[in-house]
Each structure stands twice: as structure tokens, then as C-alpha cells.
Amino acid sequence: MCGIIHLGDKQIEIECQVFDPCWWRHPDPVIDLTRIKLDTDSVGPKPESWRAELTKIGGMLATAGRFRDTQQANRLGNIIAEVGNCIAEQAEISVRFEWTTRESTS
Known about the structure:
36% helix
């Protein structure tokens, strides 16, 4: 596992493996935060910008987990998690991103 999305007390793990060689053709994010009600907020036809941003962050973590270059994957994964956590903190929601260092497969 490389990426982790924490939603309150729930945890969604993103594996580092490529299951589908054409993974980039699938537009679905790991988790779509524009469709999930968090804490006391509401979900509407036009979501708050942080919802779309954090949904993209989750997708980017999944993409970093598929990189062949371990160093690049770890570097990008850490940056993505940090940016996502800053956005979540600013929005004052209980979502947190984490990147676990991927081991080299040489």
C-alpha cells in the first residue's frame, strides 16, 4: 500500500500495483468526495471547490502509486499528501492523506 485516505475514523488504502495496463483510461477517482456527506456539511449539485480538489488529490495518489520509478513515486506521493492535507485543513474537514514510502523493486 502506498496511499491512504482517512475519512474520520475510516481508512481507504491505495495499493501500489498496476492491476490494469490501461489504468489512465478510467476516469473514476478512488473516492469521489463531491458525492459524500462529511461531518455536518451538505452535498448539492454544485460542490464546494475543496471537494473537487480533494477528489483529484485522491486520484493523483493512485497515479503516483503506479509509477515505475520508486524514488519519483515516493517524492510525488509525499507532496500530493501534503497538499491534500493543507486543503482539508483549510476546509476544516476530517479528511487526511498519507503516503507510505514504497520500497525499491530493483
